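Board notes (copied after class):
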Amino acid sequence: MTPLGILLIAIAAVSIAKGKGLTAPLAIGAALQAGAMLTVAGESLPVFYAFAIPATVAALFVRARFGADKPSPMREWWAFGAWALLITLIGPVIFEGVLVLSPSVGVNTAVTDPQPLVWSTSNAAQAAYLVLGLGAAAYLYRVGAGIATVVLCFLTGTVLSFVRLMLIQVGATWMDGFFDNSPGFVYINRLPTGEPRFRGIFAEPSVLATFSTAAAAFFLVLAIQRKGWQRWASFAALAMASVNLGNSTSTTAIVAPLIVALVLLAWVMLRFLTGKMKVHPLIMIGVFAAVPVVLVVGGQPIFAAQAELTDKLTTFSFFVRSTADLYSITSLVADSFGLGVGLGSTRPSSFLPSLISTTGIVGLVLFFIALIALIVRAWRNPEARPVAGALVAWIIGRSIAGADLGSPALIWLLVGVLASLASRVDRTTLRSHGRAARRGPWANRAAQGSPIGSPKGTL
């Protein structure tokens, strides 16, 4: 048992004693992606999945707190999970010998020396992560986890990374290796040229960039929704996430926020043009007046970002990762007849090529059906919108850098909380919540007793 594991067991004990269950350790575990609960012979058990084991068992016996009489918002995810497990079990057997990018070596080696597909422990590990991830999501849905669960997760990763950045500025290293203690990761602290890189409490800068992009999207929407001290607290968290993002020295930190900003702008314009959003004329004047200022003052950062992207496109690293993704989308999909080779069988560079090459066209379609259906159901609950924004931002970030479905457990935390918030929606409570939301409460105190509010005492 690691010191981090002992600390989290103490936190879990307090959480259970207070009647809050495992929501707090799951939230913290989703942020400590490079943390190990325990290590044995060089192998480690990630924090989130250590608590996902009892959460999965508990989910089998817990009745849904809200919406038990309605179809489960998780049902499309069960379909995706069933297919992904099936193809993981039979794919390496059916397509044995197909050349894949071995997950046991780096992308550079895998691209230059593809290996014949055989069943391996990587398949078993990814299948276990999928089962436990869906089990943890089901637990969060059934116990009625609220938005505060996601707040705790993003605050944990954001604040700890920000504190580590401040400590690095003064030369302190006492925090290193406590929250990022897993021997299963290669920690990237420097460029090949020797220049330092900041990764926060994560394994590498691109993971920090993806997490910070999702956190920034979450706190931005939350700040827009809230009033008073909650709004200022959200802006403070947004500022820390932005600082972490800016210091992550990763191309993901440039591309992912840009895409998220474009998606957000398109959504705002759509609502404005359809008459669903009213904007004060002074705000419109301010926006148009700010454009030339941004172009002049922000010209240097924009050109610097453009130069960095241009340099990235000409690097050997970009060539290797693009080759890995292209090989996965074309050759592996074709060699498996569109069915996929199974989770853990191959590892390209990005999430979407990984998803389609491991779970096939069927898995890709089922994943996005589950994702869109859940967001659409939950969107009618304003409490769910910051969570939905974070989930979309996370997927955008992972689509740029990061291949595994189950290793970064943040997706399952967001899915579980979204399902919980979606289950609270009905017409009566929506009307009461809509009036309360316009007054700007965090926990919907004006609608206490309504299933749409965050459950008292539950993160």
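Comment from the instructor: Residues 297-303, 427-459 have pLDDT under 50 and may be disordered. Residues 3-279+327-447 form one domain.
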